[in-house]
Amino acid sequence: MTRTIIQTENMGFTYPDGTSALQNINIEIKEGERVAVIGSNGAGKSTLFAHFNGINKPTSGHIKIHGKPMTYRKEELLQIRQKVGIVFQNPDDQLFAPTVIEDVAFGPMNLGLSEDEVDGRVEEALKLVGMTGLEKKAPHHLSGGQKKRVAIAGILAMRPEIMVLDEPTTGLDPTGVDQIMKILYMLNKEAMSIIIASHDVEMVTQFADKIFVLHDGEIIGQGTTEEIFNDCETLYKAHLRPPKSAELLYMLKNEGFPVNIKLTVDEAYHEILHALGSQSYHNLLHLVKDDLHHKLLHSLGEDKYHELLHLLEENQKDVTSS
Ligand SMILES: Nc1ncnc2c1ncn2[C@@H]1O[C@H](COP(=O)(O)OP(=O)(O)OP(=O)(O)O)[C@@H](O)[C@H]1O
Ligand SMILES: [Mg+2]
Prior knowledge:
The protein has 13 helices and 11 strands. With about 325 residues, it is an alpha/beta fold. The protein has 2 domains: about 5-240, Rossmann fold (3-Layer(aba) Sandwich), CATH 3.40.50; about 265-320, no CATH class. Magnesium ion binds near residues 45, 46, 89 and 166.
């Protein structure tokens, strides 16, 4: 049976200044899942993520990691932070060493690994995120997207069981987004559980197998990617926009077209072709009924028109002879 790795029970969190950032959060994340928490600015995504490794402590309810309620004791927190690697939303909150290489090496070094092992991991992590060659640079001299990559490399090098990434693709160019999402996909295939926060709904649909919709500190929707995007109203309520392809199909569906919501452009294309096919068929019947043969001839072309007439005649013969 798949183990539950993170579970919250009626969890709430209020900041010291009185801001109630999370209320009544009940979520369950299982081993090996690819999870996305989606929500607009201020929805509570980063606040929620900071509970996953004990940075935030719930002000009501509980959080359990591997079935055990967190006690927030120092040794336990150290253990949890080895298992749960968090890539912060803002890389400046994460990067602090004088050079890129020292920054990425910091985590694995603290795990007490041999120098060779640390060097190997750092090299591999920097290669994965496409930052080889910039090892000696000062992190604060990097571009925004480069900083993000280094921050991800730092957590990758620790090889956590669960990788939590707050807005992993913000500031990355399209190639960078593809690169990072491919890495996450690959790590997940190697059994790492991945949790991301994002409002880039288009990207999320390509990645997640389970989605939570967070709005004003509450979970207002959860389910598979298909389930979430078949309910565009919940997304609108959360001030999110469905993927363009899903939105288009949703509009067609509301107009009475026989379409299912599809998430990728390719699937949407086939769904629309299919729907157009049946719609054209109905148009055709309408035209034949009204005896507007010249219109048919025009829209089908001569060959197809005669082929169709032939078929109709054959069909007529079948009907009269039976
Ligand atoms: N340190 C803090 N003290 C007080 N309020 C805070 C603090 N950090 C965040 N908040 C508030 O908590 C709420 C949730 O913020 P959070 O950063 O979790 O949202 P988010 O979903 O991550 O948003 P974004 O998409 O902008 O990153 C907001 O209303 C925010 O103003
Ligand atoms: Mg945030």
